[in-house]
Specification:
Residues 1-20 form the signal peptide. By secondary structure, the chain is mainly β. It is 13% helix and 32% strand.
């Protein structure tokens, strides 16, 4: 009996020690993420937005940015985004977020969505909070050799695909890209499982298959990070294939925010509904040639930038651009497949008003001209679960890239 009691006491002690360390780690993460606020705004959707001194934001905790001088605005702009050609439908732009109905952040501050203890506790550890799992992009190894002659489908089918991600994308590859943009149709995909996420976004990539760099932006539904199923504005960056660097939004140091109007991670409304009003957010990412910082604009607002000294390969250009959607789940390429949907949750063949899309797809290269990409490939990791359709109603119409799908269905059991 004494031995049993001693064993029990030792186990309790070990548990309390581990719990105590975990609690301390969470407290340290919260302190790093939730900087002192000069003003706090309680949004009607439940979010708390802290207006943080722009010079004391989390970005400057990054070792590479300790002596960084903030660039308050880009020295160049991406340029015009719209076509004069007839489109297949008319969607309305989203230019604000829900929290802004409840107040504004004063000049000299940036709006930051407050992170809760519960948010961090949902992660496997505080250090993994808001981070993707590692993966490869094998086509990057010889990206500049392809020059539009690249069969992305054949290449990807020869390579191992990621075990926990499924993409349906439009890809431009083979040139040096200084920027990319599109109008991203905004939806709230139904049925996103609690441990999954579903995004519609743009990627800019450079580097090697197993050590690439990327900056990303668009909208996401991510219950595991945010604790709900709202559609939210998001960004991401990494310099080592998602292994140890980078994160979603401002959940690690790196991205420098300059706007007072948009909060990364805050909800986006209104969202599109089938056979009714359609909404989009215009997303642009582009390199400032004078500072080598990568700027992000959303809804006509300059959001901020990824400093160039975060990167090696992306310091001067990207070598691939992707537009489309991504589902994360440990149940992709498995039976039963995840029920998490992508885009609107409907097949691309349903077209405008039913399927999610990117339109006004543009790139900027060393010519400094904004142009429709001369060579594009479509690709889906799981065509029976999520698919693609680059559609042009007439030869004069603006091409529209539709993507998405329901996930688990009779063709994708």
């Amino acid at each position: 009996m004494v031995r049993l009691f001693l064993t029990f006491a030792i186990l309790c002690g070990l548990y309390n020690e581990a719990y105590g360390k975990a609690s301390i780690d969470i407290d340290m993460k919260l302190k790093a993420l939730n900087k002192p606020a000069l003003k706090t705004i309680k949004s009607e959707d439940g979010d708390i937005i802290d207006c943080v001194d722009i010079y004391k934001q989390h970005a400057f905790d990054h070792p590479a940015l300790r002596n960084h001088k903030i660039q308050m605005k880009p020295s160049v702009v991406f340029g015009t985004t719209k076509t004069t050609r007839p489109n297949n439908g008319t969607s309305k732009p989203i230019t604000s977020q829900i929290w802004s109905k409840s107040g504004t952040c004063p000049k000299g501050t940036v709006p930051v969505r407050r992170v809760s203890r519960e948010d961090i506790m949902r992660a496997s550890s505080p250090s993994h909070f808001g981070r993707k799992t590692p993966r490869r992009y094998d086509f990057l190894d010889d990206a500049l050799k392809h020059k539009g002659k690249f069969n992305i489908t054949a290449e990807r089918l020869r390579q191992p695909r990621p075990k926990d991600r499924s993409e349906a994308i439009l890809i431009a590859i083979g040139y040096n890209y200084l920027g990319a943009q599109s109008d991203i149709n905004v939806w709230n995909p139904p049925g996103v499982q609690f441990n999954d996420y579903s995004s519609s976004q743009i990627w800019l990539l450079a580097g090697l298959s197993d050590k690439f760099e990327t900056i990303e932006a668009g909208w996401v539904v991510n219950p595991h990070v945010f604790g709900d199923s709202r559609t939210r504005l998001f960004t991401y960056w990494t310099k080592d294939s998602y292994a140890t660097t980078g994160c979603t939004n401002l959940l690690c140091s790196g991205f420098v925010q300059t706007t007072t109007r948009f909060a990364l991670g805050a909800a986006v409304e209104p969202v599109s509904t089938p056979s009714s009003e359609q909404y989009h957010i215009t997303v642009s990412m582009y390199l400032d040639p004078n500072t080598l910082n990568w700027w992000l604009t959303c809804g006509g607002n300059v959001i901020g930038y990824w400093p160039g000294n975060l990167f090696t390969y992306l310091k001067h250009s990207a070598t691939a651009v992707q537009w489309g959607g991504e589902v994360y789940s440990t149940n992709v390429r498995k039976k039963p497949h995840t029920k998490t949907t992508m885009g609107s949750g409907r097949w691309p063949s349903y077209l405008y008003g039913e399927a999610c899309f990117h339109t006004n797809v543009r790139i900027k290269d060393y010519s400094l001209q904004i142009k429709y990409p001369p060579y594009l490939s479509e690709y889906s990791d799981e065509y029976d679960c999520y698919s693609t359709k680059l559609n042009r109603e007439t030869y004069r119409a603006e091409p529209v890239f539709f993507f998405g799908g329901p996930g688990q269905n009779r063709f994708c059991p």
